[in-house]
Amino acid sequence: MAVGGEAYNELFDVFFLWSGVVGVIVFGWLIHHSFFYRSKDGEVPNIDDIAVGEFPKHFHNTKLEIAWVVLPSILIIYLTYISLGPASDVWEDPSVVGVEGVDYYEVGINGQQWFWEFDCRNLDADLCDVGVHDETGLTVLSVKKDVTYRFNLSSSDVTHSPYIVQWGAKEDSVPGIFTSMWVTPDITGEFFIDCAEFCGDDHAYMTAILEVHE
Ligand SMILES: [Cu+2]
Predict the structure, then answer these.
(1) Mean pLDDT of all residues belonging to the chain
(2) Ligand 1 center–CA 113 separation, angstroms
(3) Does the structural domain 104-213 have CATH classification 2.60.40.420?
């Protein structure tokens, strides 16, 4: 996938918009009803004749019932559908990309309690290099801009999930299961790789840096 998080940022905007719309409707409805249906002073209680085990039919509205089942369902199906594009970018089929070394390079990322190990195999240092970050002491994975990589994910103990925070991209690394993540960095800079799957005491400190250079 082309990164910079563009596809994910667009998705975030759409989700944020619909969360706002749903929130305004739900809370508006709630506040309106809280005041509109309050019993007035001196009113006989139990105005709806509510009885245990009986559905309060007094204000029952079938059209409304159907609407608030069908409309949110449509919204959820729509949001699921638009989320599939960026997700399948990350899980691209190697046969679509082509041949390793010509169209893409493989790099290993192994999760372990509580650090990341990177395996550049025998790639040139320009394409892939592992080092230590000057200021933070964190492990650095250096890759090249506009080159396509398949990060092959693995784990030595429990489930981890490398999460390239600023790109909005993540994928689980599960012991015994092969998972991967496609990336074509299209911006340079330093980005955090965190762990997005709770994996024990120092999960929060399981951070490395992904450095993208020209
Ligand atoms: Cu972890």
Answers:
(1) 87
(2) 6
(3) yes
Residue 72 Cα to ligand 1 middle (Å):
35
> Percent of the chain scored above 90 by pLDDT?
57
33 CA → ligand 1 middle, Å: 46
Q: How remote is the CA of residue 69 from the centroid of ligand 1, in Å?
A: 38
Neighbours of ion ligand 1 (CB under 5 A): 160, 195, 199, 206
Residues of the chain with CATH 2.60.40.420: 104-213
Number of other residues whose CB lies within 10 A of the CB of residue 104: 19
How many whole angstroms from 109 Cα to the centroid of ligand 1? 12
- Contact partners, residue 95, CB within 8 Å, separation at least 6: none
Relative to beta strand 105-112, strand 149-155 is parallel
pLDDT above 80 for 16:
yes
Q: Is the peptide bond before 68 cis (omega within 30 degrees of 0)?
A: no
Is the entire prediction scored with pTM above 0.85? no
Q: For position 108, what pLDDT does the model report?
A: 96
- Those residues whose C-beta lies under 8 Å from the C-beta of residue 7, and which sit 6 or more positions away, are 1, 85, 86, 89
pLDDT tens-place string over residues 106-155: 999 999 999 999 999 999 999 999 999 999 899 999 999 999 999 999 99
